[in-house]
Specification:
Blueprint (H helix, E strand, L loop, with lengths): L2 E2 L10 H6 L2 E3 L6 E4 L11 E9 L5 E6 L7 E5 L4 E8 L13 E7 L6 H15 L8 E5 L5 E2 L17 H20 L2 E11 L5 E2 L2 H4 L4 H4 L9 E9 L2 E8 L17 H14 L15 E5 L6 E2 L11 H19 L6 E2 L4 E9 L4 E2 L1 H4 L5 E2 L5 E2 H5 E2 L3 E2 L10 H11 L4 H7 L4 E3 L1 H4 L9 E9 L2 E5 L3 E2 L1 H15 L6 E4 L8 E2 L2 H6 L2 H4 L7 H18 L37 E3 L4 E3 L3 E8 L13 E6 L5 E6 L5 E8 L3 E9 L7 E11 L7 E6 L3 E4 L1
Helix pairs in contact: 2-3, 6-7, 13-16
Length: 698
């Protein structure tokens, strides 16, 4: 019996046919454009670029999911794996595979809710061990896509681990290992390449969920975004011999297409956009390994998505309808990016550079040129607002009894009964109704981060402002204008890279802050937080422009020895009375057609025993005409789902479903399950299960 990881036959129409044939998408992804230039016509490569993809999926069962802050949202399986996509970009005039850190940059986009300081520090440690200072915090940017359907528990700060019963080592290791592996693959993939920058617009994939707060902004912001959304979609494509081999897209919309009622780990809309381009369009295979592990690498990154929702009706999605909503939103982002392949764009030149400083946001003095009122102001210790406790009502509410805007009852109770805010804290945080003075709580145990990294990365004429949080489009515009003015760049070529390197919640304009919607209540360091960041971005921009270094600022403490882990691990797996591991409890039907759902139930084991990072918990296989089996789907496919449930104390049931694609080849198929069972003593051992065969008819 042979097993083959080669992909199923892909029906390549529209943009897929254009990309596969080496032509570009035109006005719409369903139309092919003229062929790309032949290799002899390709321009001289101005960069060395490497691409890498790796699995960064953590635990998928009995772990709190990250994003909605709901204690009841415990993972029960896997829909799509979470991946890290890395790009190393080096100046060929100054760097080979070795060289100095200032000759290259490393950009990593991760299907992850947030990138916490814990992960940032660990990845940098691993890269330093391998490359000896070639990749440092100065030239490495790690940014999350902000899916709200990933596992939590990988922060060293307590606030983010409450819904996960503390720190989860297995998830932390999977995220750090996946990011590092993607970076290593990108480093090893370095080759002469061209970079082309294009811009477009995308409507119908985002809506402003805090329109009332946005309307408080002055006319220069409101007129720049007449629809109260940021429609700019930017594509940086990598070409070799005149052919596209990779791309990074930036577009602002939240990773909340999957609902808070969903219980399956998912990469949400940006993850689907990347999956569709890489796998469904290009026919790539994530399980082959080696090099980048895939022919075309497509990362869909966030920008200033703080007030941008994918839920166009401003209602939290439901499940299972959220699966189709996720696919549709991701498809729109992919189509907008693919359309840009037909544009000549700007062929990048000018090398790369990066600067990073660490700022203690709890005590920044902001000079008058950035405050807007001609006065000097100060930030304060972080504080959570009552509006943050309410959650984003349009994407998924949090705690009952709280609302966006005024919370007079809570204001009275908190100020008179629970604690007394200092005059300094009151002034800097006004008009916020303080729900939790987490800065004061930090004195006892680390709840949130106060020393944060702020970064500016230049790739040719593209500037990325690395902000460790969720920036509204109004706040993003001010940051972009600050940097564009300092470096002399076009505004569209300066982007906020949100969710980068760490996490400190939201950034709003002072005017939006005054409305105290969810975003303002989540702007931890007070009304003057954005001006403090503008001041920092201005310093970074001028230093980068002039070729100067900056003092790095205070170091963030290593909190790895303070992480609390309260949830016990798997103690023991048992198949249940009269059963065996891998036994098929529910067999598929004898025959299916395209569009049907195949379902099989196995006597399984807890998936936390082995996360199968870089592998799979399932395979759908088709019998080859000459014998043997070919894998047509695994647990990284959109068409499959892996659901786990506990039976009694130690037994598990695993349900595998496969939605038969429209282009599935007729033939004989089977479903296989791969798990690991833990005995009372010793290491977990593999368990396997295979269904009877079934037919897929044309």
């Amino acid at each position: 019996m042979s097993h083959d990881h080669s992909r199923r036959k892909v029906l390549r129409t529209g943009a897929g046919a254009a990309l596969a044939a080496g032509v570009t998408a035109a006005a719409s992804p369903a139309q092919a454009a003229s062929p790309a230039p032949a290799a002899s016509e390709a321009p001289r490569a101005r960069y060395l670029v490497g691409r890498g993809v790796a699995d960064a999926t953590g635990e998928i069962a009995e772990v709190g999911m990250m994003g909605y802050g709901r204690t009841d949202q415990q993972a029960e399986g896997l829909h799509t794996r979470l991946r890290a996509r890395a790009f190393v970009i080096a100046d060929p005039e100054r760097a080979g595979r070795g060289g100095a850190a200032d000759e290259r940059v490393l950009l990593v986009i991760v299907d992850s809710p947030m990138i916490f300081e814990s992960v940032h520090q660990e990845v940098l440690r691993r890269l330093d061990e391998r490359y000896g200072g070639l990749y440092t915090e100065q030239n490495v940017m790690i940014a999350g896509t902000h899916t709200h359907a990933g596992p939590g528990g990988y922060s060293h700060h307590l606030l983010y681990n409450i819904t996960t019963l503390g720190f989860h080592r297995a998830t932390f290791d999977a995220v750090a290992e996946g990011i590092t592996e993607a970076a290593v693959r990108a480093h090893e993939d370095l080759a002469p390449s061209e970079l082309v920058l294009t811009h477009g617009t995308l409507h119908g994939a985002s809506v402003n969920r805090s329109r009332e707060a946005f309307a408080r902004n002055p006319a220069d912001i409101r007129s720049h975004f007449p629809d109260a959304v940021d429609p700019q979609t930017t594509l940086l494509r990598v070409e070799r011999d005149g052919r596209p081999v990779g791309a990074v897209n930036w577009f602002a919309t939240h990773g909340t297409s999957m609902s808070g009622d969903n219980r399956l780990i998912s990469a949400d809309n940006k993850g689907y956009a990347a999956y569709h381009w890489e796998r469904e369009t290009e026919g790539g295979d994530y399980l082959t390994g080696g090099g980048s592990g895939i022919g075309f690498v497509a990362a869909f990154a966030q920008t200033n998505a703080g007030d941008m929702s994918p839920n166009l009706e401003l209602q939290p999605p439901t499940t299972p309808a959220d699966f189709e909503a996720t696919r549709e939103n991701g498809l729109r982002q992919y189509e907008a990016a693919a359309r840009q392949l037909a544009r000549r764009g700007t062929r990048m030149g000018g090398g790369v550079a990066s600067r990073l400083v660490r700022v203690d946001l709890s005590e920044v003095t902001v000079e008058p040129e950035f405050t807007g009122d001609g006065r000097r102001h100060r930030t304060s210790k972080p504080a959570v607002g009552a509006a943050m406790a309410a959650g984003s009502l349009e994407d998924g509410p949090a705690f009952p009894g709280f609302d966006e805007g005024d919370n007079p009852f809570w204001d009275a109770v908190s100020d008179s009964v629970l604690y007394q805010a200092s005059p300094e804290l009151r002034e800097a945080q006004a008009p916020k109704g303080i729900f939790a003075p987490v800065g004061e709580m930090n004195r006892i145990y680390p709840w949130v981060q106060e020393i944060v990294p702020v970064q500016l990365m230049r790739i040719g004429g593209l500037y990325l402002i690395g902000i460790p949080g969720e920036v509204t489009i109004g706040a993003g515009l001010r940051l972009r204008r600050t940097v564009a003015e300092a470096v002399g760049a076009e505004l569209e070529d300066v982007l906020v890279a949100g969710y980068a390197n760490s996490y400190f919640h939201y950034v709003t304009t002072p005017e939006e802050y005054d409305a105290q919607h969810y975003e303002g209540g989540s702007t931890l360091f007070g009304r003057w937080q954005l001006p403090a960041l503008q001041q920092t971005a201005d310093r970074l921009a001028r230093a980068l422009r002039d070729g100067r270094t900056l003092p790095p600022g205070p170091a963030s403490p290593d909190l790895s020895d303070k992480a609390l882990s309260l949830q016990p691990g798997v103690v023991h797996d048992a198949p249940g009375a009269g059963r065996e591991f891998g036994e098929v409890l529910t067999q598929p039907r004898a025959a299916y057609r395209a569009g049907d759902r195949v379902r099989a139930v196995f006597c399984g084991a807890h998936p936390g025993n082995d996360l199968h990072r870089g592998g799979t918990f399932l395979r759908v296989e088709r019998r080859r005409p000459g014998g043997g089996w070919r894998t047509v789907a695994d647990d990284g496919d959109w068409s499959t789902a892996f659901r786990w449930s506990r039976e009694g104390v130690a037994a598990s049931q695993v349900t595998v479903t496969w939605d038969v694609p429209r282009d599935a080849e007729p033939g004989t198929y089977r479903v296989r399950y791969f798990g690991d069972a833990k005995p009372l003593a010793g290491a977990a051992r593999p368990v396997r299960g295979t269904t009877r065969t079934f037919r897929v008819r044309g």
